[in-house]
Amino acid sequence: MKKIILTGDRPTGRLHLGHFVGSLRRRVELQNSGEFERIYIMIADAQALTDNADNPEKVRQNIIEVALDYLSVGLDPTKSTLFIQSQVPELCELAFYYMNLVTVQRLQRNPTVKAEIQLRGFSESAVEGDTQQKQGIPVGFFTYPISQASDITAFKATTVPTGDDQEPMVEQAREIVHKFNTVYGETLVMPEILLPDNAACQRLPGTDGKAKMSKSLGNCIYLSDTADEVKKKVMGMYTDPDHLRVEDPGKIEGNTVFTYLDAFCTPEHFLRYLPEYASLDELKAHYRRGGLGDVKVKKFLIAILNETLDPIRERRKYYEGRIGEVYEILRRGSETARKAASQTLEEVRAAMKIDYFADAALIESQAKAYALKNAR
User: Does residue 157 form part of some domain?
Assistant: First the structure.
């Protein structure tokens, strides 16, 4: 079987370090590995509109932000197909058919849907006329797992690189594939999830120590941040609140700075920026027993992050001067993606026996049957 990747991001803002360690860095590695025949990377604008319906301009403007972030981290349009979801209308039709294979109760049990509903301030039981009640859930947002299943299956993706928070979504897609193939015959490809190897990369916390880096919480370090912005954010980063003096023993667990070091640090970084330590384990041991200040550790992290982001900033600056070229990359990618999705849709229609005009045998057999009937 051909190995194919499908992954993507919602264009609700610039991408940040959480995206980078959770998926972007891995995408570039997979792209350059030569292991996959096709890699589809989608800017999920249609999904973004499910909870931004009253602000389409925000989504529209962020298309270019996400595209610039993709190109700046090293995604290569000659190796990966970068496309815009709404420009592949076949995805909507597939999702419509899949809706008949999933119950409302199953969607309500999806942990990711529950978490996203809470994060975005929707209410599962909005009361009409209650001004204190939160906004009800848009149907499009509620059926997000079905839309994602459409995205995955349209390109016959065998592999979906994502974080552990999206694991229930991929599992839902697998259920839809199984149900479709059981009812209509083997048509869709069963996808597998690919999680980050490094546990720290699966869900990078915000700079404030919150469990998730989120644009809405204002606790992000963006890929497009300047060196000074990175320095300011890291210096204000949450550490151990009980580590008040340098000589105090410090805690590593829940300490955001060390979580970031787990995600970004390599042995080479110590040689360049902190040669008095042989490894991260040695640095952690010193912090735990006391005698190591937060400022020194933060300066080390700042150096590592800016070293990581410098080439990304350089590539972004290059593409910022070629916006027309970026849109042409997206246009060509969307055409390529639509061609692949169209082929899958044809196969789905045939399996569901709704390919009426393409089924010459159906037309011929019915014509013969009615001719025979009328000849009697």
Answer: yes
